[in-house]
């Protein structure tokens, strides 16, 4: 079965649909719906203190990798940390990489070793 998403450029899903990140605070996750709503990319986090979150895991289905979807999830999660004035542990290797590649002061001052 061919996916039209395979030909989409970075930052865009199938048929020119932009990547939209949704935040589910109750489930403590950021998601991007892929291919309608059947597949999704996800970034999971947990509160490990009153004002500290652990950004634990990012997962993008194989067929959608290399399009910047994880980058959108990472940015949304870090922006949430900034907006809520939280501290963050970065268990997820991808989030660690994202912060290294995007060393914005508002991110760096909230990241805990």
From TrEMBL:
Source superkingdom: Eukaryota
InterPro entries (UniProt xref): Acyl_CoA_acyltransferase, Gcn5-rel_NAT, GNAT_YJDJ
Signal sequence interval, chain numbering: none
Transmembrane segments: none
Domain (N-acetyltransferase) ranges: 22-112
PANTHER family given in the database record: PROTEIN NATD1
Family: Belongs to the NATD1 family.
Protein name as annotated: Protein NATD1
Organism, scientific name: Trichechus manatus latirostris
Gene name of the record: NATD1
